[in-house]
Amino acid sequence: MRELTINGKHYSEAELLLFCKSQLVVTNCVWERDVYSFILEWLDTKGSIIAKSSGSTGVPKVMDLSKERMINSARLTGEYFKFKKGQTALLCLSTNFIAGKMMVVRAFLWQLNLILVNPNGHPFENYRSKVDFAAMVPLQVINCLREGVDFTLISTLLIGGGAVDANLEDQLQMVSSKCFSSYGMTETVSHVAIKPLNGNQKLNFYEGLRNVTFSLDERSCLQIDAPAVLSEPICTNDVVKLLDEKHFIWLGRYDNVINSGGLKLFPEQIEEKLRGMIGEAFFIIGVADQFLGQKLVLVIEKETPSSEYKLNLLEKIKGLLNKYEQARDIIFCKEFKRTPNGKLQREATMSLLN
């Protein structure tokens, strides 16, 4: 399908081309220009589009993505969520990245009504109507909860681009929206697995989409076989507990693993235990240590407080963590480094402190 409905107005392919080109002339709004530019790129005669990864684990990668595989991905998503022609889809993610691009492709394929809003941290800042489907990053969902957004406006909410921590998941139990966590990356053309987060369907593991299967490499990292979106299986740096070839529990990133005194510790699992106790953004990381190899350090996004605050916090942590998970030090950082779409950059943040 090469026609599209935007903000309730339907455009044929010819009308869409004229509309997008005219908007690029008249609007100076960067995010709007990004949307119209991508639509024009999608409608051109090339068989692929240029996409870049978020850069949360390193330097962003630029890659060619097959339009055919993007259509296949959109088809899998629509099948899972049972999209119907004319349903509304909120585009609140930047079309500079795969998640935003795929929202547009899904709207093309399933003939959804694509609602455009500023892809900042506040999706419902200037929009208060019902949507059938929305995809957001965790920070946007957290802001919606803090701002008292009426979640009855959102029928289905897909959360991706970062881990949904226990605190956020607990809050989602109180909303009427059907909420899901997605697993995927730019290389897999958006998500290949989904986990229901609330309601009667809630699960603690991810399930692969149709014809997607999983296995482990020698590091216990996830390997993905998804013929519809991948030319060959790929190996990730995500350490998982594999339940069977269709289901897994995500444990953490292999490149984040801390080797302290001969023990392998997953920062993400330790962070889960601290959610709700620390009000600010934080993360656990390993830093070089003469005796342990690496020692655990807690990094908090906060102006440096009093030494008393630090001592009290260390004391509180003792009761929540076992002896191997204890932070040997707490470091405070005024502002963490993040990617343009809000993902935390651990190593880049630490480089600010060195």
UniProtKB/TrEMBL annotation:
GO terms for molecular function: medium-chain fatty acid-CoA ligase activity. Residues 53-199 form the AMP-dependent synthetase/ligase domain. The keyword ATP-binding does not apply. One of its GO terms (biological process) is fatty acid metabolic process. Gene3D superfamilies: 3.30.300.30, N-terminal domain of ligase-like (3.40.50.12780). Pfam families: AMP-binding (PF00501). Keywords: Ligase. Belongs to the ATP-dependent AMP-binding enzyme family. This is AMP-dependent synthetase/ligase domain-containing protein.
